[in-house]
Amino acid sequence: MGQVYAVTSGKGGVGKSTVAVGLAFAFTKLNKKTLLVDMDEGLRCLDLMLGADKSAVFDLSDILLGKEMGDAVYEAEHIKGLYLVPAPADTGMIDAFSFTDFAKRAAEEFDVVIFDFPAGMDFSLYTCLPKSALFLTVAVPDPVSVRDAAAVSRRLNEINCPSRLIINNFVYRLIKRRIFRNVDDIIDGSGLQLLGVIPNSEELALLSVNHSVKPRGKAMAAFLRIARRLMNESILLPNLKKI
Ligand SMILES: Nc1ncnc2c1ncn2[C@@H]1O[C@H](COP(=O)(O)OP(=O)(O)OP(=O)(O)O)[C@@H](O)[C@H]1O
Ligand SMILES: [Mg+2]
Fold this sequence. Notes:
single chain; alpha/beta; Rossmann fold; eight-stranded mixed sheet; 37% helix; binds adenosine-5'-triphosphate; binds magnesium ion
């Protein structure tokens, strides 16, 4: 049974999809057959981020309506071991019963499955995921995002969904100048255990244009640290100045 991750946040635009793709790249580098599932019905984006908007023909609604997963999943051309299921182009296409079955089958076929959920407080599909699923709550150092991550964390706790924190868009300078709160304050404010910190980076801002992350850059190093921690390796948080 593969490991299932669900990327979530309270506030929108904090980098969930970017983190989902970056983590998927990291897992494929660690030789894990990885499936990305875009859950943002009507507002899909992972196909564009992977440069698959022209070639990914089917989407999650086709699979839920009975299309064979093997025929409907898109295999990334430029990254071996990375697969995608785009979100339905319309809303209201995901029914809980078929989605539960899909999530279970996906976890059986792939080493890692990453669900990229939309922002907000609609948790109705979260409990359809296998019990072993781990929720990755993304927050940026902005206090609004931290408070929203805390609200998500409380709600996930209530429905027995374990969750960890990923801090995205980290800029050391803004924390040093006390413009944003430091990492310890963000951890305390969110009420979540920290999994990793992703830097603000031009190459991540350009993901939808370049469809890749430099294998030896700082962003990939940050994603690899998170992927390795998720695989139970003991990886220390680096000096924040160097993230
Ligand atoms: N670490 C980063 N450094 C620079 N830019 C980033 C970073 N993370 C995300 N971005 C940029 O921030 C914007 C929002 O990112 P993204 O779409 O991943 O957020 P999201 O949380 O998935 O949004 P939504 O709530 O709409 O699903 C994008 O333009 C993306 O390129
Ligand atoms: Mg998104």
